[in-house]
Task: inverse folding
């Protein structure tokens, strides 16, 4: 029987690294997507996501289960990503790869099987990610978390340390900006 | 009540996210069914959401678990610097969005500092405290002693003088402030 997140957390708190490995396996991809959406740079996103799990492991004894484990994890990830981006302040160069580039590098097999692979969708996706990169880190964080995880405004507010109203207004602003930039492609 | 398209458009995102109350959601659902412009806006928002999710999922699908876990595990095995632990501990309190508590605390602190001098008249703030100058005098029978202390230059001057019965009060008070000290 599969253990719940909380059961795995309790095992981690007793020092069981294998339990933490299971939590990493469950959430590494989703956390990576959130971080990648904010940073728009693959290597940096990889580094920040690994750091997120490391910080989570180091502080897991302080996690009391008052919120879901993944919201706690996202909070660490978003804080680290925003800090990282404010320190870097550089123009990301990621998302310029084409499908052919990925297949040439031997990385495209899994991607080619993904439903999101037709040319038009891919082009829209790349334009969208480039447009998101022009938003502030706080706006990126809300739109990415909502899109990937479908988190409620309450959870997003809890992660970002702001009210549900602020989440709603940030989402509205971010979507409006993206619509303005991508109007003809949507 | 008929609501206009602008009001509907501003709530479409929250409606699609399922964050509106039932009556509000129902009002928007009915309007969107009847209004081609708002229906188009709704479709656009849905494509936006789906495209973003799809683009990020496509990128993340290349992320292999084993090398990722190796990176995390390596960090766990390395000893963490104390500065990072301290930062992790302090960070939640000083995160800009949660700094609202700091303003009243700073105001109360400053008010406290200002009123301290009223409650403790001898108390001095900052440099005046470290640069205290005192003059003490002892009245004796025919011989008086005045002690001048200045802490900045660590100077102590002891002044012995005979009692002058005929000296008026004002000149006696002006003595400690004489520039010769």
Result:
């Amino acid at each position: 029987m599969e253990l719940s997140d909380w059961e795995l957390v309790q095992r981690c708190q007793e020092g069981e690294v294998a339990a933490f490995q299971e939590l990493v396996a469950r959430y590494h991809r989703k956390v990576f997507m959130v971080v990648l959406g904010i940073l728009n740079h693959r290597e940096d996103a990889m580094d920040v996501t690994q750091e997120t799990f490391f910080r989570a492991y180091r502080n897991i004894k302080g996690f009391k289960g008052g919120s879901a484990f993944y919201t706690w994890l996202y909070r660490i990830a978003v804080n680290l990503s925003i800090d990282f981006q404010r320190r870097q302040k550089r123009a990301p160069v990621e998302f310029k790869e084409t499908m052919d580039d990925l297949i040439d590098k031997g990385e495209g097999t899994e991607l080619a099987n993904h439903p999101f692979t037709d040319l038009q969708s891919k082009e829209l996706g790349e334009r969208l990610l480039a447009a998101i990169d022009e938003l502030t880190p706080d706006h990126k964080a809300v739109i990415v978390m909502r899109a990937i995880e479908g988190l409620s405004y309450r959870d997003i507010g809890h992660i970002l340390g702001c009210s549900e109203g602020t989440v709603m207004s940030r989402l509205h602003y971010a979507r409006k900006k993206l619509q303005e930039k991508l109007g003809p492609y949507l | 009540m008929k609501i206009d398209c602008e009001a509907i458009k501003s709530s479409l995102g929250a409606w699609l996210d399922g964050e509106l109350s039932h009556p509000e959601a129902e009002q928007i659902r009915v309007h969107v069914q009847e209004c081609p412009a708002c229906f188009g806006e709704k479709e656009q928002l849905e494509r936006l959401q789906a495209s973003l999710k799809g683009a990020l999922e496509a990128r993340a699908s290349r992320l292999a678990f084993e090398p990722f876990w190796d990176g995390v595990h390596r960090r766990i095995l390395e000893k963490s610097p104390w500065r990072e632990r301290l930062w992790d501990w302090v960070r939640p309190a000083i995160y800009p969005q949660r700094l609202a508590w700091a303003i009243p605390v700073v105001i109360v602190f400053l008010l406290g500092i200002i009123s301290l001098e009223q409650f403790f008249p001898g108390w001095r703030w900052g440099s005046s405290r470290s640069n205290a100058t005192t003059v003490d005098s002892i009245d004796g029978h025919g011989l008086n002693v005045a002690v001048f202390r200045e802490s900045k230059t660590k100077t102590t001057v002891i002044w012995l003088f005979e009692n002058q019965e005929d000296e008026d009060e004002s000149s006696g008070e002006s003595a400690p402030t004489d520039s010769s000290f």
